[in-house]
């Protein structure tokens, strides 16, 4: 690995965000509360750490979208876990291999724009599904 690239990373804002991600992970891991999907929930800062490092060395928009899909999946499992439902887990289990395949296709076949559109649409649908689950949770509490 080129030391100049490592030096650029260590002096970039990515490095500081990476340190913040590690600090947030340690803080979240030491919290006494244990909500549903807690292990995945505390991994969010580490996922952001991976994003910062990967994006610095390979600046592709698909990396940011893939990480956002993972974060949305964690929140989806968390929201559904509080409702004692497995909808979020099932949705994530079905869509994650699709997103992983689309991410690989975009990284290794960047000329096919259709993969980027499908990837973006799947992340958007996941976000809409998360919002729908949150609204159901709110309605459940209000009723």
What does this structure look like?
With 143 residues, the protein is mainly alpha-helical. It is built from seven helices and no strands. It has helices spanning 3-10, 13-29, 38-42, 44-57, 61-82, 87-108, 113-142. Helix 2 packs antiparallel against helix 4, helix 4 (44-57) packs antiparallel against helix 5 and helix 5 (61-82) packs antiparallel against helix 6. The protein starts with a helix and ends with a helix. The mean pLDDT is 79.
The helix content, as a percent range, equals over 70%
> What is the terminal-to-terminal distance?
58 Å
Largest beta-sheet characterization:
none
- Number of DSSP helical runs: 7
In N-to-C order, the SSE pattern is: HHHHHHH
Number of strands: 0
* Amount of beta strand: under 5%
Q: How would you classify the helix and strand content by structural class?
A: mainly alpha
Low-confidence stretches: none
- Would you tell me the overall average pLDDT? 79
Identify the overall geometry: flat
Radius of gyration: 17 Å
Task: Show the helix and strand layout.
Elements lengths: L2 H8 L2 H17 L8 H5 L1 H14 L3 H22 L4 H22 L4 H30 L1
Helix pairs in contact: 2-4, 4-5, 5-6, 5-7, 6-7
Care to give the gist of this entry?
This protein has 7 helices and no strands.
